[in-house]
Amino acid sequence: MTPGKAYLSTEEIRPLAERSDAMGYWLVLHCWGTIALALALFAVWPNPLTFVIAVLVIGSRQLGLAILMHEAAHNALFKSRKINDLVGEWLCGRPILAELSAYRHYHLTHHRFTQTDKDPDLVLSSKFPTSHASLKRKFSRDLTGQTGVKQLMGQIMMSFQLAGDKDAMEAAASDFAQSFKAPQLWKSLPVFLFVIIAMGVIGDWWWGLAFWLLPYLTWFQFVLRVRNIAEHGATEQSEDPLQNVRTTKANLIARLFVAPYWVNYHLEHHMVMHVPCHNLPKMHKALLSKGLGGQMKLADGYGQAMREAGWRSA
User: What is the mean pLDDT of each run of 10 residues along the chain (314 residues)?
Assistant: First the structure.
């Protein structure tokens, strides 16, 4: 049963679940357009500040591509399953070394068994709350590229090990899915490299390394972890849809650098998973109108979500 049907009627859910091709194309265009604007900012005013801003914005848009691939995995980005798969795979997933089909299979299992023993994401959320020192180590590894390099090397090794072994590939898919990784790296690597080369052609030879590989290895890994923690870290390990997932308020700065495309409305997403991301704020208001605000797991911002996960501890 869809959890949201316990709180909202079919008549209330139906308009929220309406998909829009125009909005789907706009979101994909917006994501890549923001990446282009970040490059343009540095090109016009090349200095250390604009370099850092470009890296952070592009890293957040790499997460944005992952979010839009997630939308496609739910067939919520476009009305057509074919267009969802085509755009979600080639314009959203593969540029960040992700694979839509592997991710979809894993992710729907997460929705079916959220915060129970059968949830493939439980290994991520069950670690929280943790200590301040543990979170600091995790964030440090992310921001210095250690996490990204380790995962990339793991993907390379896994690709060699799984070559020609379909059963092993399918079994390994969930190991990478929590970070939107592709178990068969060779399928996505050419697209990833194409983006790097294209940036080098547009600007200086090093642009692709600085503005695609560097954000991918650093800021993308950091915001991906922050997103994971905010969504299910330090929530109830139960089947209560109001308490086993968290919605986090995000201001304009947070939406630019940490939480693009309404990813912060995660409780609402779990309520009815095929509601497009741009309608999640409306669903949030609908749930509040039912008087459920006091029962919902909410955080006033990502700072509060991280403190609940352990950042406040000594």
Answer: 89 97 98 98 98 98 97 97 97 95 85 87 86 95 95 78 49 44 77 97 97 98 95 92 96 97 97 97 97 96 96 70
pTM equals: 0.92
Question: Residue 299: beta bridge partners?
Answer: 248
Q: For residue 70, what pLDDT is reported?
A: 96
At residue 22, the pLDDT reads: 98
Using alpha carbons, select from 124, 121, 83 the residue that is nearest to residue 100.
83
Burial of residue 235 (number of CB atoms within 10 Å: 0-12, 13-18, 19+):
buried
Task: Note whether 223 and 148 are within 8 A (CB).
Answer: no
**Which pLDDT does position 245 carry in this prediction?**
96
Three-point CA angle 125, 87, 216, nearest 5° = 50
Q: Which one-letter amino acid corresponds to residue 193?
A: L
Q: Domain tally for the chain?
A: 1
Dihedral angle, C-alpha 29, 48, 151, 166, nearest 10 °:
30
Contacts of 274 by beta carbon, 8 Å cutoff, 6+ apart: 17, 74, 75, 76
Output the pLDDT for position 181. 64
Cα 168 to chain center, whole Å?
25
Give the integer Cα–Cα distance in Å for 41 and 97: 26
Give CA–CA dist 265/247, Å, rounded: 5
The number of C-alpha atoms within 13 Å of 173 and in the hemisphere containing its C-beta is: 18
Contact (Cβ atoms closer than 8 angstroms) between residue 257 and residue 215: no
Looking at residue 160, its pLDDT comes to 67
| φ/ψ (deg, to 5) at 298 | -125, 150
Domain of residue 274, residue span: 3-311
| Residues whose CB is less than 8 angstroms from the CB of residue 200 and which lie 6 or more positions away in sequence, other chains included | 206, 207, 208, 209
